[in-house]
């Protein structure tokens, strides 16, 4: 977890950069590419895809020294929802994307400027996901709610698939073997068919969990924006898609980001086959690390990832709320949503898929 204290010297200047200016865009992209703490969610490709698919404004904040040298960056999405209220989020629909900067003064200046944008947009909540976290009294740091899971892949080479399977702990490895015994088909790509089948599987998966599905336009926009740095892996049983995941690739790391399976997937061990196949696919692409993403502490997904041999690492987020305003609650595990989740699980899939995107695009 990275912290910064209030600066003792004059803060750098912060401004809103216009990414439509090609010179400015090239300068920022080069800075992001060179910064060691930048994640896939700091890319302009992510921020612009989210904005295009959801209608949430993207604000690109940059900090600069007196000589004009860029020293920090923060992408913000102004999320608005009639159900969940308004919030400024960095970054929208991401598990990371907070402040990255060369020094504490730049980070503090970006945090202050982000709060000023909240006042401008009349958003009572500001959420910074990862990155450098402010420590002044106006902020609340949350470090116990979520954990990340990442580990190195085995080295590529002779018999690497077998070695990757043996890397998985014994009990989980047995589940993978049961799935492999069915000889299901694994396909990767970004074609129209890949996209259609992935969204259908993912939409059914989240309906079964009781949560609304994101707009299909969001998946399409991210795939288009990331190009070769994103793809879909789908597992088919007798030609029927039963599990599918959309993954992001960044600096030698694969992150399975939006994935799930239909009801039959559990019995088929299709999800187990899917993640094992993705490990091998990513390694052949040149990846050396597998980022299993974020999970709520003590959730089913948290236990599932531990069973695969991944050790949880606490994730820290910073939240600031306007005086007298309660924090925004969009956690699907919150007791206040228990009845709604139970109702959603019983909805016909066609109804859930029609209503879900309108609701989910306000989650941010």
From TrEMBL:
Gene3D superfamilies: 3.40.630.30. InterPro entries: Acyl_CoA_acyltransferase, BioF2-like_GNAT_dom, PEP-CTERM_FemAB-rel, PG_Glycine_Bridge_Synth. Transmembrane segments: none annotated. Residues 173-306 form the BioF2-like acetyltransferase domain. SUPFAM superfamilies: Acyl-CoA N-acyltransferases (Nat) (SSF55729). This is FemAB-related protein (PEP-CTERM system-associated). The lineage of its organism: Bacteria, Pseudomonadati, Pseudomonadota, Alphaproteobacteria, Sphingomonadales.
């Amino acid at each position: 977890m990275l912290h910064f204290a209030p600066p003792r010297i004059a803060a750098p200047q912060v401004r809103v950069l216009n990414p439509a200016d090609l010179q400015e865009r090239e300068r920022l992209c080069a800075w992001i590419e060179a910064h060691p703490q930048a994640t896939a969610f700091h890319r302009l490709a992510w921020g612009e895809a989210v904005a295009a698919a959801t209608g949430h404004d993207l604000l690109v904040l940059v900090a600069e020294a007196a000589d004009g040298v860029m020293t920090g960056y923060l992408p913000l999405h102004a999320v608005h929802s009639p159900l969940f209220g308004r919030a400024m989020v960095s970054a929208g629909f991401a598990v990371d994307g907070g402040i990255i900067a060369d020094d504490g003064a730049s980070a503090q200046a970006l945090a202050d400027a982000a709060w000023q944008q909240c006042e401008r947009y009349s958003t009572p909540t500001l959420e910074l996901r990862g990155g450098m976290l402010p420590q002044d009294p106006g902020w609340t740091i949350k470090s116990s709610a979520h954990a990340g899971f990442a580990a190195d892949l085995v080295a590529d080479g002779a018999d690497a698939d077998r070695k990757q399977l043996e890397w998985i702990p014994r009990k989980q490895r047995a589940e993978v073997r049961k799935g492999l015994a069915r000889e299901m088909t694994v396909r990767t790509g970004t074609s129209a068919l890949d996209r259609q089948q992935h969204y259908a599987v993912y939409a059914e998966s989240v309906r079964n969990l009781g949560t609304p599905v994101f707009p299909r336009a969001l998946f399409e926009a991210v795939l288009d924006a990331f190009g070769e740095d994103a793809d879909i892996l789908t597992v088919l049983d007798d030609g029927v898609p039963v599990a599918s995941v959309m993954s992001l690739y960044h600096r030698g790391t694969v992150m399975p980001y939006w994935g799930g399976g239909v009801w039959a997937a559990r019995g088929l061990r299709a999800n187990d086959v899917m993640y094992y196949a993705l490990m091998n696919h990513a390694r052949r692409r040149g990846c050396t690390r597998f980022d299993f993403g974020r999970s709520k502490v003590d959730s089913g997904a948290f236990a599932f990832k531990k069973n695969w041999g991944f050790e949880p690492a606490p994730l820290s987020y910073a939240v600031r709320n306007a005086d007298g305003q309660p924090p925004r609650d969009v956690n699907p595990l919150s007791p206040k949503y228990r009845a709604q989740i139970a109702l959603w699980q019983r909805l016909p899939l066609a109804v859930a898929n029609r209503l879900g995107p309108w609701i989910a695009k306000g989650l941010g």
